[in-house]
Amino acid sequence: MAELSVDLVSRDRKVWSGAATQVSAPSADGQIGILANHTPLLAVLRPGTIKVETTSGPAVEAQVTGGFVSVDNNLVTLVVDEISLV
Amino acid sequence: MAGGAQRVYKARIKSTQSLKKIFRARELIAASRIGKARAAAAAAAPYAQAITRAVSAVASHTDVDHPLTREEGGNRAAVLVVSSDAGMAGSYPMAIVREAEKLVGQLTAEGKEVVLYVAGRRAIAYYTFRGREIAKSWSYGSEKPTPEAAQDIAETLLEVFLADEPDGGVSEMHVVSTLFVNMVTQRARVVRMLPLEVVEGVSEADEHEALPLYDFEPSPEAVLDELLPRYVQQRIYAMLLDAAASELAARQRAMHTATDNAEDLIRTYTRLANQARQADITQEISEIVSGADALAS
To answer: Is beta strand B215-217 parallel, antiparallel or unpaired with respect to A4-10?
Structure first.
């Protein structure tokens, strides 16, 4: 199965980057789940929890205050304002 | 009598030596911070890339008609001057102010009313001393700008830009800051920040023939509403970081020159002190000799 390549960036640094099987993010219309081969998407995030199921190691979970997520060709970019890892 | 000149020179050597120590310390501090400043700029790059890509994705899909990209054609313009908080950076603060004054003159000549926004204590001091009106000023620690400082500046400017002109709004916004080219070259430059010019396919990688057809959530307009202010904020943050690196590089260079000058001065004063000492000795000898001669005769 194809994997997602995830970049989690905040304003002043790259927070996390790596391969994942699933990403869950709080979009404006509700929590969305992103799996491999997701259609290209550009969504606004509201405050909530981001969860990245990594292919290796534990899931990455973080609280964010807002931002946006873009999905394109299995490349997921989560751009967030303020972030605190859980 | 003897010793007066010597004492004066010794005092000068001593004070120049302590100045030299200060200059040297500031040079070393600037040198060590410059690495951090550039690392911060590099760390912010992924965010900049992601946001630019997203903006161009939206721009190439939708008819961008957003308040932030609309040319209003009014006659009030905001100018943000990004300067430094501390001095001792050679010509750095003045170069910025000169460039800003040039821009202000140009805008005034076009019949526009200029509203000044100033960041950094040096530029604030320059304008307050001349009795110029500053709409808002920040001194945020120019050596180490934070995203929060950039956010504060961006929010203020966006608010002013979005307001109508009769209510104190502006219809364009320029930023005067310093571009860090390399350790020896930093250039003051003017960028027109608003209204945004969204060029379709901005900095798009060539290997992607076309941008994919995106789904926008909740809607292209809403996404744009969120994206563009962040884009402006990111641009301002990048400029602050660039200015910080430039300031530190300018300071390092200025302090290096100052240290060299202090060394030169110390050398000169040491020579003069030696000369004075020799003159004193010669004078004393001739006094003793002539005194002895007087007794002998």
So the answer is: unpaired
Instruction: Copy the structure tokens of residue B162.
Output: 């979005």
B164 CB burial (10 A radius; 0-12, 13-18, 19+)? exposed
CA distance B207 to B194: 30
Domain boundary assignment for chain A: 4-59+72-80
Please indicate, yes or no, whether residues B95 and B236 belong to a single structural domain of this protein: yes
Greatest Cα pair distance, chain B, in angstroms, is 117
Helix (H, G, I), strand (E, B) or coil at B44: helix
Give the residue carrying structure tokens 């003051």: B188
d(CA B30, CA B245): 9
- Closest approach of B49 to chain A, Cα-based (Å): 10
The CATH architecture one would assign to domain A4-59+72-80 is: Sandwich (2.60)
Residue B293 covered by a domain: no
Residue B261 lies in a domain: yes
CB B234 within 8 A of CB A11: yes
Burial class (CB in 10 A: 0-12, 13-18, 19+), A39: exposed
Taking the C-alpha atoms of residue A60 and residue A15, their distance in angstroms, rounded to an integer, is 11
Residue B297 lies in a domain: no
Is B77 within 8 Å of B112 (Cβ atoms)?
yes
Give the tens place of pLDDT for each residue, A19-74.
999 999 998 888 999 998 888 888 999 999 999 998 888 888 999 998 889 998 88
* Domain carrying residue B259: 4-23+254-286
Report chain A residues touching chain B, CB-CB < 8 A. Answer: 7, 9-14, 27-29, 32, 39-44, 66-68, 70, 72-73, 77, 79, 81
pLDDT of amino acid B204: 46
Which of B46, B213, B227 has the CB atom closest to A68's CB atom?
A: B227
